[in-house]
Protein backbone atom coordinates (compact mmCIF):
# COMPACT_ATOMS: atom_id res chain seq x y z
CA UNK A 1 0.00 0.00 0.00
CA UNK A 2 2.91 2.36 -0.60
CA UNK A 3 1.48 3.34 -3.99
CA UNK A 4 -1.84 4.95 -4.74
CA UNK A 5 -4.61 3.19 -6.61
CA UNK A 6 -6.30 4.83 -9.59
CA UNK A 7 -8.78 1.97 -10.05
CA UNK A 8 -11.65 4.20 -8.88
CA UNK A 9 -11.02 6.11 -12.11
CA UNK A 10 -10.06 3.36 -14.59
CA UNK A 11 -8.19 0.05 -14.71
CA UNK A 12 -5.89 1.28 -17.49
CA UNK A 13 -5.80 3.07 -20.81
CA UNK A 14 -7.15 -0.09 -22.46
CA UNK A 15 -10.08 -0.18 -20.01
CA UNK A 16 -13.37 -0.25 -21.94
CA UNK A 17 -14.68 2.52 -19.63
CA UNK A 18 -11.71 4.75 -20.49
CA UNK A 19 -12.26 4.24 -24.21
CA UNK A 20 -15.99 4.84 -23.83
CA UNK A 21 -15.38 8.06 -21.92
CA UNK A 22 -12.95 9.25 -24.60
CA UNK A 23 -15.69 8.73 -27.19
CA UNK A 24 -18.18 10.46 -24.90
CA UNK A 25 -15.77 13.41 -24.65
CA UNK A 26 -15.69 13.71 -28.45
CA UNK A 27 -19.49 13.68 -28.57
CA UNK A 28 -19.75 16.27 -25.81
CA UNK A 29 -17.26 18.55 -27.56
CA UNK A 30 -19.44 18.35 -30.70
CA UNK A 31 -22.52 19.16 -28.61
CA UNK A 32 -20.84 22.17 -27.02
CA UNK A 33 -19.53 23.46 -30.34
CA UNK A 34 -23.00 23.14 -31.89
CA UNK A 35 -24.08 25.97 -29.59
CA UNK A 36 -22.03 28.50 -31.57
CA UNK A 37 -25.13 29.63 -33.43
CA UNK A 38 -26.73 30.57 -30.08
CA UNK A 39 -24.29 33.41 -29.58
CA UNK A 40 -25.30 35.41 -32.63
CA UNK A 41 -28.13 37.11 -30.71
CA UNK A 42 -29.81 37.32 -27.30
CA UNK A 43 -33.11 35.57 -28.08
CA UNK A 44 -34.03 33.12 -25.29
CA UNK A 45 -30.80 34.17 -23.58
CA UNK A 46 -31.53 32.50 -20.23
CA UNK A 47 -31.99 29.10 -21.90
CA UNK A 48 -28.75 29.59 -23.86
CA UNK A 49 -26.84 30.45 -20.69
CA UNK A 50 -28.28 27.46 -18.84
CA UNK A 51 -27.44 25.11 -21.72
CA UNK A 52 -23.85 26.34 -21.79
CA UNK A 53 -23.41 25.89 -18.03
CA UNK A 54 -24.94 22.39 -18.06
CA UNK A 55 -22.57 21.35 -20.84
CA UNK A 56 -19.63 22.84 -18.97
CA UNK A 57 -20.53 20.90 -15.82
CA UNK A 58 -20.77 17.67 -17.84
CA UNK A 59 -17.43 18.40 -19.51
CA UNK A 60 -15.76 19.10 -16.15
CA UNK A 61 -16.95 15.75 -14.83
CA UNK A 62 -15.63 13.81 -17.82
CA UNK A 63 -12.31 15.64 -18.23
CA UNK A 64 -11.70 15.43 -14.47
CA UNK A 65 -11.58 11.63 -14.71
CA UNK A 66 -9.80 11.25 -18.03
CA UNK A 67 -7.14 13.87 -17.44
CA UNK A 68 -6.40 12.97 -13.83
CA UNK A 69 -5.90 9.32 -14.73
CA UNK A 70 -3.32 10.27 -17.35
CA UNK A 71 -1.57 13.06 -15.42
CA UNK A 72 -1.41 11.12 -12.14
CA UNK A 73 0.12 8.22 -14.02
CA UNK A 74 2.81 10.45 -15.51
CA UNK A 75 3.53 11.93 -12.07
CA UNK A 76 4.81 8.59 -10.81
CA UNK A 77 5.83 7.11 -14.19
CA UNK A 78 7.34 9.96 -16.18
CA UNK A 79 8.58 7.59 -18.90
CA UNK A 80 5.15 6.00 -19.44
CA UNK A 81 4.72 6.94 -23.09
CA UNK A 82 1.07 5.91 -23.27
CA UNK A 83 0.23 8.23 -20.38
CA UNK A 84 2.32 11.07 -21.80
CA UNK A 85 0.63 10.72 -25.18
CA UNK A 86 -2.78 10.68 -23.53
CA UNK A 87 -2.04 13.91 -21.64
CA UNK A 88 -1.09 15.50 -24.95
CA UNK A 89 -4.15 14.06 -26.73
CA UNK A 90 -6.54 15.37 -24.08
CA UNK A 91 -4.95 18.81 -24.13
CA UNK A 92 -5.32 18.82 -27.92
CA UNK A 93 -8.97 17.79 -27.72
CA UNK A 94 -9.70 20.61 -25.29
CA UNK A 95 -8.28 23.16 -27.73
CA UNK A 96 -11.30 22.31 -29.91
CA UNK A 97 -13.38 24.22 -27.36
CA UNK A 98 -11.37 27.43 -27.62
CA UNK A 99 -13.59 28.94 -30.33
CA UNK A 100 -16.90 28.28 -28.57
CA UNK A 101 -15.53 29.44 -25.21
CA UNK A 102 -14.29 32.66 -26.79
CA UNK A 103 -17.61 33.26 -28.57
CA UNK A 104 -19.48 32.64 -25.31
CA UNK A 105 -17.39 35.04 -23.23
CA UNK A 106 -17.65 37.78 -25.87
CA UNK A 107 -21.41 37.19 -26.03
CA UNK A 108 -21.54 37.39 -22.23
CA UNK A 109 -19.58 40.67 -22.26
CA UNK A 110 -22.43 42.51 -24.01
CA UNK A 111 -25.24 40.51 -22.44
CA UNK A 112 -28.14 42.88 -21.69
CA UNK A 113 -29.74 42.66 -18.25
CA UNK A 114 -27.42 39.90 -17.03
CA UNK A 115 -28.04 40.82 -13.40
CA UNK A 116 -31.81 40.41 -13.77
CA UNK A 117 -31.59 37.15 -15.70
CA UNK A 118 -29.29 35.62 -13.12
CA UNK A 119 -31.88 36.29 -10.43
CA UNK A 120 -34.56 34.54 -12.54
CA UNK A 121 -32.75 31.18 -12.74
CA UNK A 122 -31.62 28.95 -9.90
CA UNK A 123 -28.77 27.52 -12.02
CA UNK A 124 -27.52 30.96 -13.03
CA UNK A 125 -27.89 32.31 -9.51
CA UNK A 126 -25.79 29.45 -8.17
CA UNK A 127 -23.00 30.46 -10.58
CA UNK A 128 -23.39 34.21 -10.27
CA UNK A 129 -19.78 34.88 -9.25
CA UNK A 130 -18.42 32.79 -12.12
CA UNK A 131 -20.57 34.50 -14.74
CA UNK A 132 -19.69 37.99 -13.54
CA UNK A 133 -16.01 37.05 -13.41
CA UNK A 134 -16.10 35.81 -17.01
CA UNK A 135 -17.78 39.02 -18.09
CA UNK A 136 -14.99 41.04 -16.47
CA UNK A 137 -12.27 38.89 -18.06
CA UNK A 138 -13.80 39.30 -21.50
CA UNK A 139 -11.87 42.53 -22.03
CA UNK A 140 -8.63 40.50 -22.21
CA UNK A 141 -9.81 38.14 -24.94
CA UNK A 142 -8.26 38.36 -28.40
CA UNK A 143 -9.94 37.69 -31.74
CA UNK A 144 -11.46 34.22 -31.88
CA UNK A 145 -9.01 32.88 -34.49
CA UNK A 146 -6.08 34.15 -32.44
CA UNK A 147 -7.39 32.43 -29.30
CA UNK A 148 -7.66 29.16 -31.23
CA UNK A 149 -4.15 29.52 -32.58
CA UNK A 150 -2.70 30.32 -29.14
CA UNK A 151 -4.40 27.28 -27.59
CA UNK A 152 -2.96 25.00 -30.28
CA UNK A 153 0.51 26.53 -30.25
CA UNK A 154 0.74 26.14 -26.48
CA UNK A 155 0.70 22.37 -26.94
CA UNK A 156 3.97 22.56 -28.85
CA UNK A 157 5.16 25.52 -26.80
CA UNK A 158 4.92 26.03 -23.04
CA UNK A 159 3.14 22.71 -22.35
CA UNK A 160 5.83 20.74 -24.18
CA UNK A 161 8.66 22.71 -22.54
CA UNK A 162 7.09 22.07 -19.13
CA UNK A 163 6.91 18.34 -19.80
CA UNK A 164 10.56 18.39 -20.83
CA UNK A 165 11.58 19.92 -17.48
CA UNK A 166 9.55 17.28 -15.64
CA UNK A 167 11.06 14.45 -17.68
CA UNK A 168 14.67 15.63 -17.34
CA UNK A 169 14.50 16.18 -13.58
CA UNK A 170 12.57 12.98 -12.81
CA UNK A 171 14.97 10.80 -14.81
CA UNK A 172 18.22 12.59 -13.93
CA UNK A 173 20.96 10.22 -12.76
CA UNK A 174 22.87 11.61 -9.77
CA UNK A 175 26.24 10.07 -8.97
CA UNK A 176 26.49 9.91 -5.19
CA UNK A 177 28.95 7.97 -3.07
CA UNK A 178 29.76 5.46 -5.80
CA UNK A 179 26.18 4.74 -6.80
CA UNK A 180 23.50 6.26 -9.03
CA UNK A 181 20.41 7.66 -7.35
CA UNK A 182 17.50 9.94 -8.34
CA UNK A 183 17.28 13.69 -7.87
CA UNK A 184 14.52 13.26 -5.25
CA UNK A 185 16.72 10.86 -3.29
CA UNK A 186 19.77 13.12 -3.28
CA UNK A 187 17.69 16.17 -2.30
CA UNK A 188 16.17 14.19 0.58
CA UNK A 189 19.70 13.76 1.99
CA UNK A 190 19.66 17.50 2.84
CA UNK A 191 17.97 16.49 6.12
CA UNK A 192 20.49 13.78 7.02
CA UNK A 193 22.07 13.89 10.48
CA UNK A 194 25.59 13.51 9.10
CA UNK A 195 27.10 16.86 7.94
CA UNK A 196 29.39 15.04 5.52
CA UNK A 197 26.41 13.39 3.87
CA UNK A 198 24.59 16.73 3.50
CA UNK A 199 27.60 18.45 1.94
CA UNK A 200 28.39 15.54 -0.36
CA UNK A 201 24.73 15.35 -1.46
CA UNK A 202 24.64 19.09 -2.20
CA UNK A 203 27.80 18.83 -4.31
CA UNK A 204 26.46 15.78 -6.15
CA UNK A 205 23.16 17.54 -6.80
CA UNK A 206 24.82 20.65 -8.26
CA UNK A 207 27.14 18.51 -10.37
CA UNK A 208 24.23 16.52 -11.80
CA UNK A 209 22.40 19.68 -12.92
CA UNK A 210 25.26 20.48 -15.29
CA UNK A 211 24.01 17.66 -17.54
CA UNK A 212 20.57 19.26 -18.05
CA UNK A 213 21.07 22.98 -17.34
CA UNK A 214 21.15 24.08 -20.98
CA UNK A 215 18.02 22.13 -21.95
CA UNK A 216 16.09 23.45 -18.97
CA UNK A 217 17.34 26.99 -19.61
CA UNK A 218 15.75 26.69 -23.06
CA UNK A 219 12.53 25.51 -21.40
CA UNK A 220 12.41 28.43 -18.99
CA UNK A 221 13.24 31.03 -21.65
CA UNK A 222 10.62 29.63 -24.02
CA UNK A 223 7.84 29.53 -21.42
CA UNK A 224 8.49 33.01 -20.03
CA UNK A 225 8.85 34.44 -23.54
CA UNK A 226 5.50 32.93 -24.53
CA UNK A 227 3.80 34.28 -21.41
CA UNK A 228 5.23 37.77 -21.98
CA UNK A 229 3.95 37.82 -25.56
CA UNK A 230 0.44 36.59 -24.78
CA UNK A 231 0.09 38.66 -21.60
CA UNK A 232 0.97 41.86 -23.44
CA UNK A 233 -1.37 40.98 -26.32
CA UNK A 234 -4.22 40.57 -23.83
CA UNK A 235 -3.67 44.07 -22.50
CA UNK A 236 -2.00 43.26 -19.19
CA UNK A 237 0.81 45.52 -18.01
CA UNK A 238 2.80 42.46 -16.96
CA UNK A 239 2.48 38.72 -16.30
CA UNK A 240 2.26 39.64 -12.59
CA UNK A 241 -0.89 41.69 -13.21
CA UNK A 242 -2.36 38.71 -15.05
CA UNK A 243 -1.32 36.32 -12.26
CA UNK A 244 -3.01 38.52 -9.67
CA UNK A 245 -6.24 38.63 -11.67
CA UNK A 246 -6.15 34.85 -12.06
CA UNK A 247 -5.53 34.59 -8.31
CA UNK A 248 -8.57 36.80 -7.57
CA UNK A 249 -6.20 38.89 -5.53
CA UNK A 250 -5.53 42.62 -5.59
CA UNK A 251 -2.13 44.22 -6.02
CA UNK A 252 -2.81 46.08 -2.76
CA UNK A 253 -2.99 42.77 -0.88
CA UNK A 254 0.22 41.45 -2.44
CA UNK A 255 2.11 44.66 -1.71
CA UNK A 256 0.86 44.77 1.90
CA UNK A 257 2.01 41.21 2.46
CA UNK A 258 5.41 41.60 0.79
CA UNK A 259 6.09 44.92 2.53
CA UNK A 260 5.47 43.24 5.88
CA UNK A 261 7.71 40.30 4.90
CA UNK A 262 10.62 42.58 4.01
CA UNK A 263 10.39 44.21 7.44
CA UNK A 264 10.89 40.77 9.03
CA UNK A 265 13.91 39.67 6.95
CA UNK A 266 16.23 40.45 9.85
CA UNK A 267 14.60 38.10 12.36
CA UNK A 268 14.96 35.21 9.91
CA UNK A 269 18.60 36.15 9.31
CA UNK A 270 19.20 36.02 13.06
CA UNK A 271 17.84 32.50 13.09
CA UNK A 272 20.04 31.46 10.15
CA UNK A 273 23.17 32.91 11.75
CA UNK A 274 22.41 31.15 15.03
CA UNK A 275 21.93 27.87 13.16
CA UNK A 276 25.25 28.45 11.38
CA UNK A 277 26.98 29.00 14.73
CA UNK A 278 25.45 25.85 16.21
CA UNK A 279 26.74 23.85 13.25
CA UNK A 280 30.22 25.35 13.47
CA UNK A 281 30.08 27.77 10.53
CA UNK A 282 31.56 31.26 10.79
CA UNK A 283 30.44 33.04 7.62
CA UNK A 284 26.73 32.36 7.53
CA UNK A 285 24.92 29.11 6.89
CA UNK A 286 25.91 27.17 3.76
CA UNK A 287 22.89 26.25 1.64
CA UNK A 288 23.55 22.54 2.17
CA UNK A 289 22.85 22.98 5.89
CA UNK A 290 19.56 24.85 5.53
CA UNK A 291 17.68 21.66 6.35
CA UNK A 292 20.18 20.21 8.81
CA UNK A 293 18.50 18.92 11.99
CA UNK A 294 19.19 20.90 15.15
CA UNK A 295 18.68 19.41 18.60
CA UNK A 296 18.07 15.73 19.12
CA UNK A 297 15.32 13.60 17.76
CA UNK A 298 15.98 9.99 17.02
CA UNK A 299 12.38 9.54 15.97
CA UNK A 300 11.77 8.27 12.48
CA UNK A 301 8.41 7.20 11.20
CA UNK A 302 7.27 4.18 9.31
CA UNK A 303 4.38 4.91 7.00
CA UNK A 304 1.98 3.36 9.51
CA UNK A 305 3.40 5.41 12.40
CA UNK A 306 3.15 8.65 10.44
CA UNK A 307 -0.45 7.83 9.52
CA UNK A 308 -1.37 7.06 13.13
CA UNK A 309 0.23 10.24 14.46
CA UNK A 310 -1.61 12.38 11.92
CA UNK A 311 -4.93 10.69 12.65
CA UNK A 312 -4.51 11.20 16.40
CA UNK A 313 -3.90 14.91 16.02
CA UNK A 314 -6.42 15.60 13.25
CA UNK A 315 -9.06 14.17 15.58
CA UNK A 316 -8.38 16.97 18.07
CA UNK A 317 -9.65 19.46 15.49
CA UNK A 318 -12.69 17.65 14.11
CA UNK A 319 -14.08 14.16 13.39
CA UNK A 320 -14.53 15.15 9.74
CA UNK A 321 -10.83 15.91 9.29
CA UNK A 322 -9.86 12.64 11.04
CA UNK A 323 -12.26 10.57 8.94
CA UNK A 324 -11.07 12.15 5.71
CA UNK A 325 -7.44 11.27 6.48
CA UNK A 326 -8.44 7.73 7.49
CA UNK A 327 -10.13 7.25 4.13
CA UNK A 328 -6.98 8.47 2.38
CA UNK A 329 -4.88 5.90 4.21
CA UNK A 330 -7.21 2.92 3.96
CA UNK A 331 -8.53 3.49 0.43
CA UNK A 332 -5.09 3.91 -1.17
CA UNK A 333 -5.17 7.61 -1.95
CA UNK A 334 -1.46 8.12 -1.14
CA UNK A 335 1.65 7.36 -3.20
CA UNK A 336 4.35 7.50 -0.53
CA UNK A 337 7.92 6.62 -1.48
CA UNK A 338 10.44 7.87 -4.08
CA UNK A 339 11.45 5.77 -7.08
CA UNK A 340 13.00 6.33 -10.47
CA UNK A 341 10.62 8.04 -12.88
CA UNK A 342 8.53 9.54 -10.08
CA UNK A 343 8.61 13.30 -9.93
CA UNK A 344 10.01 15.07 -6.87
CA UNK A 345 8.16 17.01 -4.22
CA UNK A 346 4.59 16.46 -3.12
CA UNK A 347 1.10 17.43 -4.24
CA UNK A 348 -2.58 16.66 -3.81
CA UNK A 349 -5.06 16.28 -6.68
CA UNK A 350 -8.72 16.80 -5.79
CA UNK A 351 -11.05 14.94 -8.16
CA UNK A 352 -14.55 16.37 -8.08
CA UNK A 353 -15.93 13.66 -10.39
CA UNK A 354 -15.38 10.89 -7.82
CA UNK A 355 -15.34 13.10 -4.69
CA UNK A 356 -11.86 11.81 -3.77
CA UNK A 357 -8.26 13.04 -3.79
CA UNK A 358 -4.87 11.52 -4.50
CA UNK A 359 -1.74 12.56 -2.58
CA UNK A 360 1.83 12.14 -3.83
CA UNK A 361 4.81 12.44 -1.47
CA UNK A 362 8.41 11.24 -1.45
CA UNK A 363 8.29 9.81 2.07
CA UNK A 364 11.52 8.49 3.61
CA UNK A 365 10.51 8.49 7.29
CA UNK A 366 11.69 11.87 8.58
CA UNK A 367 9.67 14.23 10.75
CA UNK A 368 9.62 16.63 7.81
CA UNK A 369 8.09 13.92 5.60
CA UNK A 370 5.34 13.36 8.15
CA UNK A 371 4.59 17.10 8.19
CA UNK A 372 4.51 17.15 4.38
CA UNK A 373 1.98 14.34 4.44
CA UNK A 374 -0.23 16.26 6.86
CA UNK A 375 0.10 19.34 4.63
CA UNK A 376 -1.09 17.49 1.53
CA UNK A 377 -3.97 15.92 3.46
CA UNK A 378 -5.05 19.47 4.26
CA UNK A 379 -5.52 19.98 0.53
CA UNK A 380 -7.60 16.80 0.48
CA UNK A 381 -9.75 18.18 3.30
CA UNK A 382 -10.27 21.40 1.35
CA UNK A 383 -11.42 19.23 -1.53
CA UNK A 384 -13.78 17.26 0.71
CA UNK A 385 -15.45 20.47 1.89
CA UNK A 386 -15.70 22.08 -1.52
CA UNK A 387 -17.01 18.93 -3.22
CA UNK A 388 -20.38 20.07 -1.82
CA UNK A 389 -20.25 22.81 -4.46
CA UNK A 390 -20.55 22.28 -8.22
CA UNK A 391 -17.32 21.74 -10.16
CA UNK A 392 -17.54 25.31 -11.49
CA UNK A 393 -17.79 26.72 -7.97
CA UNK A 394 -14.96 24.47 -6.77
CA UNK A 395 -12.31 26.20 -8.84
CA UNK A 396 -10.40 28.07 -6.14
CA UNK A 397 -7.23 30.07 -6.75
CA UNK A 398 -3.66 29.51 -5.57
CA UNK A 399 -3.47 31.93 -2.58
CA UNK A 400 -6.39 30.28 -0.77
CA UNK A 401 -5.29 26.83 -1.99
CA UNK A 402 -2.61 26.75 0.71
CA UNK A 403 -4.97 27.64 3.56
CA UNK A 404 -6.22 24.22 4.66
CA UNK A 405 -2.87 22.53 4.00
CA UNK A 406 -0.94 24.97 6.18
CA UNK A 407 -3.65 24.83 8.84
CA UNK A 408 -3.35 21.02 9.06
CA UNK A 409 0.42 21.27 9.13
CA UNK A 410 0.12 23.69 12.07
CA UNK A 411 -2.14 21.28 13.98
CA UNK A 412 0.40 18.46 13.74
CA UNK A 413 3.44 20.66 14.31
CA UNK A 414 2.03 22.22 17.46
CA UNK A 415 1.00 18.83 18.81
CA UNK A 416 4.49 17.45 18.21
CA UNK A 417 6.08 20.30 20.15
CA UNK A 418 3.71 19.67 23.09
CA UNK A 419 4.49 15.95 23.08
CA UNK A 420 8.25 16.35 23.50
CA UNK A 421 9.93 15.03 26.63
CA UNK A 422 13.24 16.91 26.54
CA UNK A 423 14.54 20.36 25.69
CA UNK A 424 16.69 18.89 22.90
CA UNK A 425 13.58 17.43 21.27
CA UNK A 426 11.74 20.71 21.69
CA UNK A 427 14.58 22.55 19.95
CA UNK A 428 14.50 20.00 17.12
CA UNK A 429 10.78 20.35 16.49
CA UNK A 430 10.76 24.12 16.92
CA UNK A 431 13.64 24.48 14.49
CA UNK A 432 11.91 22.16 12.01
CA UNK A 433 8.93 24.53 12.00
CA UNK A 434 11.19 27.56 11.59
CA UNK A 435 12.91 25.81 8.67
CA UNK A 436 9.53 25.63 6.95
CA UNK A 437 8.69 29.25 7.78
CA UNK A 438 12.01 30.32 6.27
CA UNK A 439 11.27 28.45 3.08
CA UNK A 440 7.74 29.82 2.73
CA UNK A 441 8.64 33.41 3.62
CA UNK A 442 12.28 33.98 2.65
CA UNK A 443 12.90 31.41 -0.07
CA UNK A 444 9.54 32.10 -1.69
CA UNK A 445 10.42 35.80 -1.84
CA UNK A 446 13.68 34.89 -3.56
CA UNK A 447 11.71 32.85 -6.10
CA UNK A 448 9.37 35.78 -6.69
CA UNK A 449 12.32 38.15 -7.25
CA UNK A 450 13.97 35.62 -9.60
CA UNK A 451 10.84 35.07 -11.68
CA UNK A 452 10.16 38.80 -11.93
CA UNK A 453 13.75 39.30 -13.13
CA UNK A 454 13.36 36.59 -15.77
CA UNK A 455 10.08 38.01 -17.06
CA UNK A 456 11.50 41.52 -17.26
CA UNK A 457 14.77 40.36 -18.80
CA UNK A 458 13.03 38.23 -21.43
CA UNK A 459 11.60 41.42 -22.89
CA UNK A 460 15.12 42.23 -24.10
CA UNK A 461 17.19 39.05 -24.19
CA UNK A 462 17.44 35.26 -23.90
CA UNK A 463 19.23 34.00 -20.80
CA UNK A 464 21.80 31.24 -20.90
CA UNK A 465 22.19 28.87 -17.94
CA UNK A 466 25.02 30.94 -16.46
CA UNK A 467 22.92 34.12 -16.46
CA UNK A 468 19.98 32.30 -14.87
CA UNK A 469 22.27 31.05 -12.14
CA UNK A 470 23.44 34.62 -11.51
CA UNK A 471 19.84 35.85 -11.26
CA UNK A 472 19.06 33.13 -8.74
CA UNK A 473 22.12 33.92 -6.63
CA UNK A 474 21.22 37.61 -6.64
CA UNK A 475 17.65 36.83 -5.51
CA UNK A 476 18.98 34.64 -2.69
CA UNK A 477 21.38 37.36 -1.55
CA UNK A 478 18.56 39.94 -1.50
CA UNK A 479 16.39 37.81 0.76
CA UNK A 480 18.63 35.55 2.83
CA UNK A 481 21.26 38.31 3.12
CA UNK A 482 24.10 37.54 5.51
CA UNK A 483 22.11 34.66 6.98
CA UNK A 484 23.64 32.40 4.33
CA UNK A 485 27.25 31.98 3.24
CA UNK A 486 27.36 33.97 0.00
CA UNK A 487 29.87 31.51 -1.48
CA UNK A 488 27.70 28.46 -0.78
CA UNK A 489 24.24 29.30 -2.16
CA UNK A 490 22.13 27.27 -4.62
CA UNK A 491 22.40 28.65 -8.16
CA UNK A 492 20.22 25.88 -9.63
CA UNK A 493 17.00 26.38 -7.68
CA UNK A 494 15.34 27.35 -10.98
CA UNK A 495 16.10 23.90 -12.42
CA UNK A 496 14.52 21.68 -9.77
CA UNK A 497 11.36 23.66 -8.99
CA UNK A 498 8.49 22.80 -11.38
CA UNK A 499 6.61 25.96 -10.37
CA UNK A 500 8.33 28.07 -13.04
CA UNK A 501 7.41 25.80 -15.92
CA UNK A 502 3.78 26.57 -16.71
CA UNK A 503 2.47 28.82 -19.44
CA UNK A 504 -0.86 29.20 -17.66
CA UNK A 505 0.30 29.66 -14.07
CA UNK A 506 2.95 32.33 -13.51
CA UNK A 507 4.28 33.44 -10.10
CA UNK A 508 3.45 30.14 -8.44
CA UNK A 509 5.31 31.37 -5.36
CA UNK A 510 3.64 34.20 -3.43
CA UNK A 511 0.49 32.08 -2.85
CA UNK A 512 2.54 29.92 -0.47
CA UNK A 513 3.43 32.92 1.69
CA UNK A 514 -0.18 34.03 1.61
CA UNK A 515 -1.29 30.53 2.61
CA UNK A 516 1.12 30.26 5.55
CA UNK A 517 0.41 33.68 7.01
CA UNK A 518 -3.34 33.54 6.36
CA UNK A 519 -3.54 30.08 7.96
CA UNK A 520 -1.56 31.30 10.98
CA UNK A 521 -4.05 34.13 11.39
CA UNK A 522 -6.92 31.64 11.15
CA UNK A 523 -5.27 29.32 13.66
CA UNK A 524 -5.03 32.19 16.14
CA UNK A 525 -8.79 32.71 15.74
CA UNK A 526 -9.36 28.99 16.24
CA UNK A 527 -7.52 29.12 19.58
CA UNK A 528 -9.78 32.01 20.66
CA UNK A 529 -12.99 30.04 20.00
CA UNK A 530 -12.39 26.40 19.11
CA UNK A 531 -16.00 25.28 18.75
CA UNK A 532 -17.33 28.42 17.08
CA UNK A 533 -14.46 28.54 14.61
CA UNK A 534 -15.08 25.16 12.97
CA UNK A 535 -18.29 26.30 11.28
CA UNK A 536 -16.64 29.50 10.07
CA UNK A 537 -13.66 27.51 8.78
CA UNK A 538 -15.72 25.09 6.71
CA UNK A 539 -17.84 27.94 5.35
CA UNK A 540 -14.67 29.82 4.43
CA UNK A 541 -13.12 26.84 2.61
CA UNK A 542 -16.34 26.16 0.75
CA UNK A 543 -16.51 29.78 -0.44
CA UNK A 544 -12.98 29.83 -1.89
CA UNK A 545 -14.20 28.88 -5.39
CA UNK A 546 -16.70 31.72 -5.68
CA UNK A 547 -15.15 34.75 -3.97
CA UNK A 548 -12.14 37.00 -4.25
CA UNK A 549 -9.50 36.19 -1.66
CA UNK A 550 -10.18 39.45 0.18
CA UNK A 551 -13.87 38.52 0.55
CA UNK A 552 -13.00 35.00 1.70
CA UNK A 553 -10.85 36.52 4.46
CA UNK A 554 -13.69 38.80 5.55
CA UNK A 555 -15.76 35.71 6.42
CA UNK A 556 -13.31 35.22 9.30
CA UNK A 557 -13.18 38.94 10.13
CA UNK A 558 -9.76 39.45 8.52
CA UNK A 559 -8.67 42.36 6.30
CA UNK A 560 -5.77 41.14 4.14
CA UNK A 561 -5.36 44.47 2.35
CA UNK A 562 -3.78 46.00 5.46
CA UNK A 563 -0.17 45.36 6.39
CA UNK A 564 -1.24 45.08 10.05
CA UNK A 565 -2.77 41.62 9.51
CA UNK A 566 0.40 40.27 7.88
CA UNK A 567 2.51 41.76 10.66
CA UNK A 568 0.34 40.04 13.26
CA UNK A 569 0.90 36.68 11.56
CA UNK A 570 4.64 37.32 11.16
CA UNK A 571 4.79 38.16 14.86
CA UNK A 572 3.64 34.60 15.58
CA UNK A 573 6.58 33.29 13.54
CA UNK A 574 8.90 35.77 15.27
CA UNK A 575 7.89 34.41 18.69
CA UNK A 576 8.93 30.92 17.61
CA UNK A 577 12.27 32.23 16.35
CA UNK A 578 12.87 34.19 19.55
CA UNK A 579 12.13 31.08 21.61
CA UNK A 580 14.61 29.12 19.49
CA UNK A 581 17.25 31.82 20.00
CA UNK A 582 16.60 31.73 23.75
CA UNK A 583 16.80 27.93 23.99
CA UNK A 584 20.04 27.82 22.00
CA UNK A 585 21.78 30.72 23.76
Describe the structure.
Among the domains are: 16-156, Oligopeptidase f, N-terminal domain (Butyryl-CoA Dehydrogenase, subunit A, domain 3); 303-424 and 513-566, Orthogonal Bundle (Neurolysin, domain 3). Helix content is 65%, strand content 3%. The mean pLDDT is 95. Helix 3 packs antiparallel against helix 8 (144-156), helix 4 runs antiparallel to helix 8 (144-156) and helix 9 packs antiparallel against helix 12 (213-233). The longest helix has 35 residues, at 423-457. It is mainly alpha-helical. A 3-stranded mixed beta sheet has the order 3-5-4, with helices on both faces. Strands 1-2 form a two-stranded antiparallel ribbon. The protein is globular. The protein has helices at 16-33, 45-76, 81-95, 98-109, 114-119, 122-126, 128-137, 144-156, 158-170, 183-188, 195-209, 213-233, 239-246, 251-263, 265-278, 303-314, 319-330, 367-386, 398-401, 403-419, 423-457, 465-480, 493-496, 510-528, 530-543, 549-554, 563-583; strands at 174-176, 179-181, 334-335, 347-351, 356-360.
Sheet with the most strands? 3 strands, mixed
The number of helical segments is 27
Return the CATH topology of one domain.
Neurolysin, domain 3
Q: Which CATH class of one domain?
A: Mainly Alpha
**How many beta-strand elements?**
5
Shape: globular
Distance between the termini: 45 Å
Spans of 5+ residues with little confidence (pLDDT < 50)?
none
Radius of gyration: 24 Å
Strand content: under 5%
Helicity level:
55-70%
Provide the structure class: mainly alpha
Strand order of the largest sheet: 3-5-4
What would CATH call the architecture of one domain? Orthogonal Bundle
Rounded average pLDDT: 95
Amino acid sequence: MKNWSLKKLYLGFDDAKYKADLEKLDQLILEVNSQAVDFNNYDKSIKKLERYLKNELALNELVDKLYHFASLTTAVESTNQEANKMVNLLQDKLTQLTKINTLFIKWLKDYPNLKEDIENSDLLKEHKFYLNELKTKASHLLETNLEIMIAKLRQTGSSAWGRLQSLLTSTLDVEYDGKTITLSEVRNLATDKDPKVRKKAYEAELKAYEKIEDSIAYSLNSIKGEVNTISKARGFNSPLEQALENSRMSKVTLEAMQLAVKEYYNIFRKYLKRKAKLLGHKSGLPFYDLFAPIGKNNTTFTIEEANDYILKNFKTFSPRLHDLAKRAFTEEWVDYTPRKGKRGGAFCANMHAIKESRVMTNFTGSFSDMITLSHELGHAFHGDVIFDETSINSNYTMPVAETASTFCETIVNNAAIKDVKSEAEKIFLLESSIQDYTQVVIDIMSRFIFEKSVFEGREKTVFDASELKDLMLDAQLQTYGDGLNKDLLHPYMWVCKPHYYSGGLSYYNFPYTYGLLFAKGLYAKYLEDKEGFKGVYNKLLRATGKMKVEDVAKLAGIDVTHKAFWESSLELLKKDIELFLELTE
